[in-house]
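Subject line: Sequence and fold of a protein, written as structure tokens
Body of memo: The sequence and its backbone structure tokens, given next.
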Amino acid sequence: MTDRIVRLANFVMPRSGGLRTALRALGEGYLAAGHEPVLIVPGERYSDEQTSQGRVITLPGPVVPFTGGYRVLIHRRRLAALLDELAPDRLEVSDRFTLRWTGRWARERGIPSVMVSHESLAGLLTFAGRLGSVWADHLNSRSFGAYDTVLCTTSWAAAEFRRIGAQNLVQVPLGVDLDLFHPCRYDAALRDRYARPEQTLLVHCGRLSQEKRPERSIEALVALRAQGVDAVLVVAGDGPLRARLQEQARGHAVHFMEFVAERTAVAALLATADVVIAPGPIETFGLAALEALACGTPVVVDATSALPEVIGKAGAAVHDDFAGGVLQVLTRPDPSRRAAARSRAEEFSWPAAVSGFLAVHNSPPVAAPVVAPVLEDPSAVTVP
């Protein structure tokens, strides 16, 4: 049976990362499965086009200050009219800020709805202190009450809903393009550009914004060199902290790349690195880290995030000592650590993720959390 699956998302733009990747891969999968996916996102101006992920409609939306250009959908009347016109069979919402009302819209029309939690609201609001935690619980309570199902990609992401009593949770991990992100993308010329043969090449690949804590990667490079490790760091990404990070890195062996739009170029960089650092403490899944593993490159991650669930034993999870995590990874023979990284990534694929998401869409609202068994127990992989 063909369903029209209308998907809504905020904070998507040409230079956005994981969410944009996930939306595209899921849309392509829905289309290949015979469904009719329609994605609605904010942008500078209106557009409506057919793409590889189905129909994509862009509605004008304002830029959120201090986010580096991210936009949101706020014109409720216009969006509601468009939703009525589209008459979806299923509604999938990747947002919990300005779009929460769409859950009620769907319920009033008998349309099954799924809210996909791609970010940790509790984590984002920790920057506001204790009051932020109170607001996160309040807003999360409204979110899980608005939709038939809340889909989380890791147990870590589901925890902020579980602790406030949400019962309509399911868990489905995301995937990775195992053909695009592959060890064969190793590029000797790229490596020669940034590092000598005897040097350790570290890579930070991600948005340069406060919640991602990119300064920790630079601190790790400085600490490693102070301990006599001949390492260099390549920072690939863009964002509001770029100028500040360049100042922090002045005088150190740090190279900043411009935003890398071409996915094959990203894969080449990840495959060529010796170690990738993913220091974000509130990552709910971490697609960039999984892409690095698929390229055969181990990853050092923040132990307090969801990433230990994803990387398993194919890297290191640390609390603050990212330099120590890099050293831990480097003690393992290169062939075995690269094989372990690739093997772990092969447990995740986009076809499996698409099947999981479609199973949620085709199921009645759940009464209890469903935990996907593929993810690792974080306590088994965290190191001091």
User: Anything to note?
Assistant: Confidence is low (pLDDT under 50) at residues 366-384. Residues 45 and 60 are 5 Å apart (CA to CA).
